[in-house]
Amino acid sequence: MSNVPFDPSQFTAPKAKPLPVILLLDVSGSMSGEKIRNLNAAVRDMLSDFSDTETSEIEIHVAIITFGAQVRLHQALTSASAIQWQDLSADGMTPLGTALQMAKAMIEDKDTVPSRAYRPTVVLVSDGGPNDAWEKPLQQFIGDGRSAKCDRMAMAIGADADEAVLSKFLEGSSHPLLYAENAKRLRENFKYITMSVTIRTRSQTPNTVPAPDAIDIQPTTIEARQPNAKSTTQTAAAQDGGYW
Known about the structure:
By secondary structure, the chain is an alpha/beta fold. The chain is 32% helix and 18% strand. The chain has a 6-stranded mixed beta sheet, sandwiched between helices. Strand 4, helix 3 (135-143) and strand 5 form a beta-alpha-beta unit. Helix 1 packs parallel to helix 5 (183-201). The longest helix is centred in the first third of the chain and has 19 residues, at 34-52. It is globular and about 75 Å long.
C-alpha cells in the first residue's frame, strides 16, 4: 500500500489548447459610416460563433489590431467567450506596415502565443491602400519566423481597396482574396472566415487548414467579380448596403 499522501491538486483536467485568430482591421477614415457599422456587426457575430464552438480540447483565442489614426491593440489575445466587445470607430490614415509589425511581435512572443498553441490564423481587412512603409514589414511577416507559418486570409472592402497589397499578403496561402462590395458580402465573407477556423476545432489535425471547397459557404472573391458589370454591381450594392 502506498504511503503517499492524497493531494487533490495533482488531479487536474487537461487544459484546452488555444487556436489563435488575429484580426488586422483597417479603421481609417474611409471606413466610416456603413463600412465600420457592418464590420463591428460581423466581428460580433464571429466572436459569438467562436464561443459556441469551444471544446474541452480547443479554445479559440482572438486578438484584434486596428490601424487608422493610430495602430492599437484593440483586443489582447483572449478566449473568444471571455471578450466583451467594444465597437470600433473609424478615423485617420492606413498605417498597415506598423500593424504588421505589431502582429508579428505578438506571434513571435511565446509568452503570448505559446508553443502548445495551434497554427494561428491571421486575417487582414482593408478598404484602401497603406500610407506608410509597408513593403518590408509585410515581407518579414510572410517570409520569416513563426508568422510565416500562420494561415493568412484577406478581404478587400469596396472598389478602392489595394488588391495588389492584399494579394501579396496571401502569397503562399491557398485562400482566395475575398471581396466585399457591400454589407451583405462582408457578412458572408466573415462567415466564410469563421467556418474556416471552426472546422479546425472539429478536425483530427487542427493545424491543417481546410481547402476553400471544403467550406459550405462560397465567398465572394476578387476573381469572381465581373469588371464589365459595374452598373449592375452598383445597383446590387445599393440594395445590400452599398460601398460603391
